[in-house]
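hiii so um. not sure if this is the right channel but i have a protein structure encoded as C-alpha coordinates and i wanna go backwards to a sequence. like what aa goes where. can anyone help
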Protein backbone atom coordinates (compact mmCIF):
# COMPACT_ATOMS: atom_id res chain seq x y z
CA UNK A 1 0.00 0.00 0.00
CA UNK A 2 1.19 3.50 -0.86
CA UNK A 3 0.10 6.97 0.27
CA UNK A 4 -0.66 9.80 -2.14
CA UNK A 5 -1.91 13.36 -1.75
CA UNK A 6 -4.87 14.67 -3.74
CA UNK A 7 -6.11 18.21 -4.28
CA UNK A 8 -9.41 18.89 -6.06
CA UNK A 9 -10.18 22.21 -7.73
CA UNK A 10 -13.25 24.22 -8.66
CA UNK A 11 -16.67 22.61 -8.57
CA UNK A 12 -15.17 19.16 -8.01
CA UNK A 13 -15.11 20.14 -4.34
CA UNK A 14 -18.92 19.91 -4.36
CA UNK A 15 -18.54 16.11 -4.33
CA UNK A 16 -16.31 16.10 -1.23
CA UNK A 17 -17.22 16.24 2.45
CA UNK A 18 -17.01 19.82 3.69
CA UNK A 19 -13.89 19.16 5.76
CA UNK A 20 -11.97 17.98 2.67
CA UNK A 21 -12.84 20.81 0.31
CA UNK A 22 -10.11 23.11 -0.95
CA UNK A 23 -7.27 21.35 0.83
CA UNK A 24 -4.74 18.55 0.44
CA UNK A 25 -6.06 15.05 1.10
CA UNK A 26 -3.36 12.53 1.99
CA UNK A 27 -4.75 9.03 1.85
CA UNK A 28 -3.61 5.40 1.65
CA UNK A 29 -4.22 3.81 -1.75
CA UNK A 30 -5.09 0.25 -2.58
CA UNK A 31 -2.42 -1.93 -4.18
CA UNK A 32 -2.14 -1.13 -7.92
CA UNK A 33 -4.63 1.73 -7.54
CA UNK A 34 -5.00 4.09 -10.49
CA UNK A 35 -5.78 7.80 -10.43
CA UNK A 36 -9.34 6.99 -11.56
CA UNK A 37 -9.86 4.46 -8.79
CA UNK A 38 -8.76 6.83 -6.06
CA UNK A 39 -10.50 9.93 -7.46
CA UNK A 40 -13.78 8.00 -7.36
CA UNK A 41 -13.00 6.44 -3.98
CA UNK A 42 -12.74 9.99 -2.63
CA UNK A 43 -16.18 10.79 -4.06
CA UNK A 44 -15.66 12.44 -7.46
CA UNK A 45 -17.07 10.74 -10.60
CA UNK A 46 -14.41 10.34 -13.27
CA UNK A 47 -16.73 11.85 -15.90
CA UNK A 48 -16.49 15.21 -14.09
CA UNK A 49 -12.70 15.38 -14.46
CA UNK A 50 -10.97 16.99 -17.42
CA UNK A 51 -7.38 17.19 -16.25
CA UNK A 52 -5.20 15.21 -13.86
CA UNK A 53 -1.65 16.25 -12.96
CA UNK A 54 0.58 13.75 -11.19
CA UNK A 55 3.59 15.48 -9.64
CA UNK A 56 2.97 18.43 -11.94
CA UNK A 57 2.81 16.44 -15.17
CA UNK A 58 -0.28 15.80 -17.29
CA UNK A 59 -1.53 12.26 -16.74
CA UNK A 60 -4.47 10.07 -17.65
CA UNK A 61 -6.98 8.38 -15.40
CA UNK A 62 -5.22 5.03 -15.67
CA UNK A 63 -1.86 6.00 -14.11
CA UNK A 64 -0.71 3.67 -11.32
CA UNK A 65 -0.03 5.60 -8.13
CA UNK A 66 3.31 5.47 -6.33
CA UNK A 67 4.40 6.41 -2.83
CA UNK A 68 4.38 10.16 -2.26
CA UNK A 69 2.62 11.10 -5.51
CA UNK A 70 0.81 14.45 -5.52
CA UNK A 71 -2.29 14.51 -7.70
CA UNK A 72 -4.11 17.69 -8.77
CA UNK A 73 -7.58 17.10 -10.20
CA UNK A 74 -9.38 19.74 -12.27
CA UNK A 75 -12.89 20.10 -13.73
CA UNK A 76 -13.61 21.34 -17.22
CA UNK A 77 -11.70 24.51 -18.13
CA UNK A 78 -13.66 27.28 -19.80
CA UNK A 79 -10.87 29.77 -20.49
CA UNK A 80 -7.63 27.76 -20.68
CA UNK A 81 -6.34 25.47 -23.39
CA UNK A 82 -5.14 22.25 -21.77
CA UNK A 83 -4.72 20.22 -24.95
CA UNK A 84 -1.01 19.73 -24.35
CA UNK A 85 -1.64 18.27 -20.88
CA UNK A 86 -3.60 15.19 -22.00
CA UNK A 87 -7.08 16.19 -20.84
CA UNK A 88 -9.72 13.49 -20.47
CA UNK A 89 -12.21 13.53 -23.38
CA UNK A 90 -15.58 15.00 -22.41
CA UNK A 91 -17.59 14.02 -25.49
CA UNK A 92 -17.92 10.74 -27.37
CA UNK A 93 -16.55 10.72 -30.93
CA UNK A 94 -18.81 11.76 -33.78
CA UNK A 95 -22.38 12.90 -33.35
CA UNK A 96 -23.20 13.59 -29.71
CA UNK A 97 -26.11 11.61 -28.28
CA UNK A 98 -27.51 11.57 -24.76
CA UNK A 99 -29.32 9.29 -22.37
CA UNK A 100 -30.97 11.08 -19.45
CA UNK A 101 -31.90 9.43 -16.17
CA UNK A 102 -35.39 9.36 -14.67
CA UNK A 103 -34.98 12.71 -12.88
CA UNK A 104 -34.26 14.77 -16.00
CA UNK A 105 -37.37 14.55 -18.16
CA UNK A 106 -37.67 18.32 -18.56
CA UNK A 107 -34.05 18.62 -19.67
CA UNK A 108 -34.45 15.72 -22.10
CA UNK A 109 -37.41 17.46 -23.75
CA UNK A 110 -35.44 20.70 -24.12
CA UNK A 111 -32.47 18.86 -25.62
CA UNK A 112 -34.77 17.19 -28.16
CA UNK A 113 -36.22 20.63 -28.89
CA UNK A 114 -32.66 21.81 -29.62
CA UNK A 115 -32.18 18.87 -32.00
CA UNK A 116 -30.16 16.47 -29.85
CA UNK A 117 -30.79 12.73 -29.93
CA UNK A 118 -31.81 12.18 -26.29
CA UNK A 119 -33.18 8.94 -24.87
CA UNK A 120 -35.41 9.41 -21.83
CA UNK A 121 -37.90 7.19 -20.07
CA UNK A 122 -38.77 7.68 -16.43
CA UNK A 123 -38.84 3.91 -15.96
CA UNK A 124 -35.19 3.42 -16.98
CA UNK A 125 -33.10 1.83 -14.24
CA UNK A 126 -29.42 2.59 -13.70
CA UNK A 127 -28.26 -0.59 -15.40
CA UNK A 128 -30.41 0.23 -18.44
CA UNK A 129 -28.96 3.73 -18.64
CA UNK A 130 -25.50 2.22 -18.41
CA UNK A 131 -26.23 -0.29 -21.19
CA UNK A 132 -27.52 2.43 -23.52
CA UNK A 133 -24.47 4.58 -22.79
CA UNK A 134 -22.08 1.75 -23.59
CA UNK A 135 -23.88 0.14 -26.53
CA UNK A 136 -24.70 3.39 -28.34
CA UNK A 137 -21.82 5.62 -27.15
CA UNK A 138 -24.22 8.00 -25.42
CA UNK A 139 -23.28 10.61 -22.85
CA UNK A 140 -25.10 10.07 -19.55
CA UNK A 141 -26.95 13.03 -18.01
CA UNK A 142 -27.76 12.44 -14.37
CA UNK A 143 -28.04 13.80 -10.84
CA UNK A 144 -26.84 10.45 -9.48
CA UNK A 145 -23.09 10.65 -8.92
CA UNK A 146 -22.85 6.92 -8.20
CA UNK A 147 -24.19 6.16 -11.68
CA UNK A 148 -21.30 8.12 -13.20
CA UNK A 149 -18.79 6.06 -11.22
CA UNK A 150 -19.75 2.85 -13.02
CA UNK A 151 -16.69 1.41 -14.70
CA UNK A 152 -18.14 1.09 -18.19
CA UNK A 153 -19.58 4.63 -18.39
CA UNK A 154 -16.97 6.70 -20.20
CA UNK A 155 -18.86 9.93 -20.89
CA UNK A 156 -21.20 11.68 -18.52
CA UNK A 157 -22.31 14.92 -16.95
CA UNK A 158 -23.47 15.44 -13.39
CA UNK A 159 -26.24 18.04 -13.65
CA UNK A 160 -26.22 20.45 -10.73
CA UNK A 161 -29.05 22.84 -11.66
CA UNK A 162 -32.58 22.03 -10.51
CA UNK A 163 -34.89 23.51 -13.16
CA UNK A 164 -34.96 22.32 -16.80
CA UNK A 165 -33.97 25.68 -18.32
CA UNK A 166 -31.09 26.12 -15.86
CA UNK A 167 -30.04 22.53 -16.60
CA UNK A 168 -30.07 23.26 -20.33
CA UNK A 169 -27.84 26.29 -19.82
CA UNK A 170 -25.45 24.25 -17.67
CA UNK A 171 -25.17 21.41 -20.19
CA UNK A 172 -24.83 23.76 -23.19
CA UNK A 173 -22.05 25.74 -21.51
CA UNK A 174 -20.16 22.77 -20.14
CA UNK A 175 -20.25 20.71 -23.33
CA UNK A 176 -20.10 23.57 -25.86
CA UNK A 177 -23.32 22.58 -27.61
CA UNK A 178 -24.36 25.86 -29.23
CA UNK A 179 -22.73 25.11 -32.59
CA UNK A 180 -24.15 21.58 -32.65
CA UNK A 181 -27.78 22.50 -32.03
CA UNK A 182 -30.34 21.91 -34.80
CA UNK A 183 -33.59 23.19 -33.28
CA UNK A 184 -36.92 21.56 -34.11
CA UNK A 185 -35.51 18.61 -36.03
CA UNK A 186 -36.58 15.87 -33.56
CA UNK A 187 -39.91 14.78 -32.16
CA UNK A 188 -40.36 16.02 -28.59
CA UNK A 189 -42.29 12.90 -27.62
CA UNK A 190 -40.32 9.96 -29.01
CA UNK A 191 -36.98 11.47 -30.12
CA UNK A 192 -37.34 10.41 -33.77
CA UNK A 193 -36.12 12.72 -36.57
CA UNK A 194 -38.71 14.98 -38.18
CA UNK A 195 -39.09 15.47 -41.90
CA UNK A 196 -40.88 17.97 -44.10
CA UNK A 197 -44.34 16.92 -45.25
CA UNK A 198 -46.75 18.38 -47.78
CA UNK A 199 -49.74 20.17 -46.31
CA UNK A 200 -52.12 18.04 -48.34
CA UNK A 201 -50.74 14.89 -46.71
CA UNK A 202 -51.57 16.05 -43.17
CA UNK A 203 -54.57 18.24 -43.79
CA UNK A 204 -56.91 15.85 -42.00
CA UNK A 205 -54.80 16.17 -38.83
CA UNK A 206 -54.78 19.98 -38.69
CA UNK A 207 -57.03 22.25 -36.63
CA UNK A 208 -59.12 24.51 -38.85
CA UNK A 209 -57.26 27.70 -37.90
CA UNK A 210 -53.88 26.07 -38.48
CA UNK A 211 -54.93 24.80 -41.90
CA UNK A 212 -56.05 28.32 -42.81
CA UNK A 213 -52.87 30.16 -41.84
CA UNK A 214 -49.92 27.71 -41.94
CA UNK A 215 -48.18 26.26 -45.00
CA UNK A 216 -45.02 24.55 -43.67
CA UNK A 217 -45.19 21.32 -41.70
CA UNK A 218 -42.98 18.60 -40.29
CA UNK A 219 -44.02 15.17 -39.13
CA UNK A 220 -42.72 12.24 -37.13
CA UNK A 221 -43.01 8.86 -38.83
CA UNK A 222 -42.92 7.06 -35.49
CA UNK A 223 -45.87 8.68 -33.74
CA UNK A 224 -47.50 10.62 -36.60
CA UNK A 225 -47.49 13.97 -34.80
CA UNK A 226 -47.43 17.09 -36.98
CA UNK A 227 -45.48 20.24 -36.12
CA UNK A 228 -45.82 23.79 -37.44
CA UNK A 229 -44.54 27.27 -36.57
CA UNK A 230 -47.44 28.50 -34.48
CA UNK A 231 -47.50 30.30 -31.15
CA UNK A 232 -46.23 27.20 -29.34
CA UNK A 233 -43.22 27.06 -31.69
CA UNK A 234 -42.55 30.76 -31.00
CA UNK A 235 -42.56 30.14 -27.24
CA UNK A 236 -40.18 27.21 -27.61
CA UNK A 237 -37.90 29.27 -29.85
CA UNK A 238 -37.78 31.97 -27.18
CA UNK A 239 -36.69 29.36 -24.61
CA UNK A 240 -33.82 28.16 -26.82
CA UNK A 241 -32.67 31.52 -28.20
CA UNK A 242 -30.32 32.44 -25.30
CA UNK A 243 -28.34 29.21 -25.73
CA UNK A 244 -27.86 29.21 -29.49
CA UNK A 245 -24.89 30.80 -31.27
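sure thing!! here u go:
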Amino acid sequence: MVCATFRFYGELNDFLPRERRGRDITTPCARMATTKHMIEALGVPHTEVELVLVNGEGAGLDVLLEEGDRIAVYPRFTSFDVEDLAPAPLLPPGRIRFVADAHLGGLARLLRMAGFDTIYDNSLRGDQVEALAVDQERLVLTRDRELLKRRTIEYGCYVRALTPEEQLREVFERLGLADRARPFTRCLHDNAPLHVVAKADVLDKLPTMVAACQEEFNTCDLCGRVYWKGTHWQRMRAVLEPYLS
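oh and Residues 194-243 form one domain.
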